[in-house]
Specification:
The structure holds two protein chains of two kinds. Chain A is an alpha+beta fold. Chain A contains six helices and eleven strands. A five-stranded antiparallel β-sheet of chain A has the order 7-8-9-10-11. In chain A, a hairpin with a 4-residue loop joins strand 8 and strand 9. By secondary structure, chain B is of the alpha+beta class. Chain B is built from three helices and ten strands. Chain B starts with 21 loop residues before the first strand and ends with a strand. Classes of the chains: A alpha+beta, B alpha+beta. At the A-B interface, strand 7, strand 8, strand 9 and strand 11 of A face strand 2, strand 3 and helix 3 of B.
């Protein structure tokens, strides 16, 4: 039995469905059929595996905005994330990777070299942090969909470093999204009180939050000096 | 926050925008807000919902104007119609509004200016005017955008 976790973006929330299928080593799960059946996508669309082990999606139809991300949670689980909306006549996502590729521990799309996780690592990362880190990895593709400038590698690396520091201080869920200039926003809090961190394509990082009853801001040129005291106090304001 | 319909049929709005007026910015991307996963909590408007357009004459600069509609002088049906026109023109969807009071919108040296849009038959259009230094300074601009988002409520459509 193979477990396939399908996550689709719908109305800004993740919709998760777990599909289980009988398969053998010589008969891997037909992911195309699974996705077509679960999501109703019909139109063939090319997906390729790039040299970093990730998947990229060829979108012959400009209206088809979709990016597929796959990563391993264990040797027998595959995670596929779908973005975008199907056309009226649907969209088929064809996943050409083989079982051997899918079970390779080197396959970790969206992560830089040396950052790949083993199945054991995945289990140790708290869910809120893992989801936010995944969102940072995917923000490049979200940006492309939104016609935003593409976030740089340094912006993504900085965002992950800052997010980990913030999560160490407060394990709340953080909202991750791209700005049009290629910045990555890490947004905590809700209506009324926010903490916002913007990671810029050139490496700058901007921290904005409420501290001592007023809005304060810190600007850095890189992630070498994450202002943890500022973050702690600003995050503390969100708990009030 | 509920839509505040006019007490009487829409009239010509006064040129000056009252501080108590709610302003509605139509949202044309589902990435401009976040629905709450638990019931009963309001949705959250993201900072990117208030990004002004690039300056066509200089793509490295941004305009200062953030387009909104003055809720008190529009029926919700008319606001939906206007948002639909914008969506059609840009080839995007429509997902609701970010609602913010003029009072909050004009804090931190921002301004709110009545700006009737004759081409769309919308006398109730207004711009939130960001400070001049946001044209070139992305960090100052983003601080303002976060402030606007923080002070806003998301009103989904269809409700």
């Amino acid at each position: 039995m193979t477990t396939v976790l399908l996550k689709s973006m719908s109305e800004s929330t993740w919709d998760e469905r777990i599909y289980e299928d009988n398969e053998t080593a010589t008969n891997p799960p037909d992911l195309e059929s699974i996705i077509a059946r679960e999501f109703g996508y019909q139109r063939p669309t090319q997906i390729t595996i790039d040299d970093k082990g990730g998947t990229t999606l060829g979108t012959p139809d400009a209206d088809v905005h979709a990016v597929v991300r796959k990563a391993l949670q264990s040797s027998r689980n595959v995670v596929i994330m779908l973005y975008g909306r199907p056309q009226e006549d649907g969209l088929t996502l064809h996943c050409p990777f083989t079982r051997e590729e899918a079970t390779s521990t080197e396959v970790n799309f969206g992560q830089s070299a040396g950052e790949s996780t083993s199945p054991g690592d995945v289990e140790e990362v708290p869910q809120t942090l893992r989801e936010a880190l995944d969102a940072i990895s995917e923000v490049r593709y979200v940006a492309i969909e939104e016609d935003c400038d593409e976030p740089s590698d340094v912006a993504i690396a900085n965002a992950k470093a800052v997010l980990r520091a913030m999560h160490d201080l407060s394990s709340r869920a953080y909202d991750i999204y791209p700005m049009s200039g290629g910045e990555i926003a890490i947004d905590g809090g809700s209506n009324g009180r926010r903490i916002g961190v913007f990671c810029y394509p050139d490496g700058r990082i901007q921290y904005v939050g409420w501290v001592d009853g007023e809005r304060q801001e810190i600007r850095r040129t890189d992630d070498a000096d994450i202002p943890t005291d500022f973050l702690r106090r600003a995050l503390g304001q969100l708990e009030l | 926050m509920l839509w505040l319909p006019p007490a009487s049929p829409p009239t010509v709005p006064p040129e000056e925008v009252s501080v108590t007026e709610p302003l509605a910015r139509s949202l044309h991307s589902r990435r401009h807000f976040k629905k709450r996963e638990s019931d009963g909590e309001p949705g959250k408007v993201r900072a990117n919902a208030f990004e002004p357009p690039r300056d066509e004459a200089n793509s490295r600069q941004r305009l200062r104007e953030v387009s909104t509609d003055r809720c008190q002088y529009l029926t919700q049906d008319k606001a939906v119609e206007l948002a639909g026109q914008r969506a059609e023109k840009r080839g995007v969807g429509f997902y609701g509004w970010a609602i913010i009071t003029a009072d909050e919108a004009q804090k931190s040296e921002r301004d709110v200016i009545s700006s009737p849009a004759k081409d769309h038959d919308n006398p109730a259009h207004a711009n939130i005017l960001l400070p001049i230094d946001t044209v070139n300074d992305d960090q100052t601009r983003n601080r303002h955008l976060l402030e606007l988002a923080e002070s806003s409520c998301w009103l989904g459509y269809p409700t």
